[in-house]
Amino acid sequence: MEPLRFTPLLKRIRWGGRRLGTVLGKSIGDGSDFAESWEVSDHSLDQTVVAQGEFVGWTLQRLVRERSRELLGRHANRTQFPLLIKFLDANDRLSLQVHPNDVQARRYRADDNGKTEAWVILEAAPGSRVFAGLRHGVTRDSLQHALETCDIESCLHSFAAAAGQCVFVPAGTVHAIDAGILLAEVQQSSDTTFRLHDWGRLGTEGRPRPVHITEALDCTDFTRGPVSPVVPRLASLASHVAEDLVECPQFVIRRHATNAMFPLMCDDRFRIVMLLSGQSELESNSGVELLTMGDTILVPAACQVVRIAPRGDVRLLEIYLS
Ligand SMILES: [Zn+2]
What we know:
Layout: E1 6-7, E2 9-17, H1 19-22, E3 34-40, E4 42-43, E5 46-47, E6 49-50, H2 60-66, H3 68-72, E7 83-90, E8 96-98, H4 102-108, E9 117-123, E10 129-134, H5 140-148, E11 156-160, E12 166-169, E13 175-177, E14 181-188, E15 194-197, H6 213-219, E16 233-236, E17 241-247, E18 252-258, E19 262-264, E20 271-284, E21 287-292, E22 296-299, E23 306-320
The structure holds zinc ion.
Zinc ion binds near residues 97, 117 and 175.
């Protein structure tokens, strides 16, 4: 089975911008509200479709159902692709939100999963902040009181955003990002979000957008505390030193920054490659694929002999299941 390239699903939302096109090369049209590019998705009706090759026109769901063993290898015993991979361009501060874990999610929607996610920041405007986690000592009561008195920022941990940071956001972590942030996101396949606070803003109809305070408080992990950028763990490979950013039960993210050719491990697991900068060839037994900045490719578990051959310096994410 050859490496799979999908046609991204572009999501237009009020807070989006144009960088999915201008920086990451997506086919955007006119407008300045391109918020998310869903690169690999098997979530409900949001299905990415194979763009080329033997499986052109297939949805990811059909691949999971009909080619499970080849695609997923040792993780073949599932009916849904477990990860949702996105790029996201924020040109306004996003609402403060929290996602449920798997057990909580099923209380609200029988067919959805929890959402643990991680971000790798590609660009951040000067002054942009990341809000992640609560300050030490914040309880459900004090957070609720702060919401009622519009003093929410006194409860939130935040830090200055910078390109290259990785932020790990397990389910239950209160979070928001500022205008000016462009990022790659790896998450469980889920679309359940509870909005805690919207910074006093009005929606397109001039009214406040709905918040879901009870659900958000029920799902908030008050033991999580402040969340800071991940400190990468270095992994020495034969060709270069990679950075292990996240290793959690839901996914693993390794970052490579190199100009050297290196093999992708073939260990009966799928691999997702997101090219964050530069250009690289991806060689496999079914040919050579050129990847440029903003490209995402899914390498099936059955794909043998896969090599990354950079054309100059590249930075890429390698994402897989533990
Ligand atoms: Zn989120």
